[in-house]
Design brief:
With 129 residues, the protein is an all-alpha fold. The protein has one domain. The protein contains five helices and no strands. Helix 2 packs antiparallel against helix 4 and helix 4 runs antiparallel to helix 5. The chain starts with a helix and ends with a helix.
Length: 129
């Protein structure tokens, strides 16, 4: 996917996350789960493409972050803030399926998920995404 397509998808996800926060996170739990996960992957792909660390046609999948071994294989190269980025993406993926497919979660669980996403978003903004 081209960087422009990732930016378009990222914009859509960010808008839906903000809309969900405004409408009420308890009512939009699934939307938040899906779009925080998708936006996180889009930001990582944009950054890695811009840094020329992955090929233009390369695709990153959210479920790679459910396995430390897969992360070591897929991201054997180094990049700025790698440890923080990978850690936050692992934590998001740990909670993703519960938020997307599980029973309604407590407000604190969803707020923590959004907080983790916002921390990741700050890192990528500082890296020029």
């Amino acid at each position: 996917m081209k960087i422009e397509s990732h930016y378009k998808s990222l914009k859509e996800s960010l808008e839906l996350i903000e809309e969900s926060v405004q409408k009420g996170i308890l009512e939009r739990q699934r939307t938040i789960g899906f779009h925080c996960s998708a936006a996180a992957v889009d930001m990582l792909e944009i950054f890695l493409h811009k840094s020329r660390l992955i090929e233009p046609g390369a695709i990153i999948k959210h479920d790679w972050f459910s396995s430390s071994n897969k992360i070591k294989i897929k991201f054997s190269y180094d990049f700025p803030e790698k440890k923080k980025i990978i850690s936050l993406m692992l934590r998001l993926e740990e909670k993703r399926n519960i938020i997307c497919y599980g029973k309604p979660q407590k407000k604190e669980v969803i707020e923590e998920y959004i907080f983790l996403f916002r921390e990741l978003e700050k890192i990528f903004r500082n890296l020029g995404v």
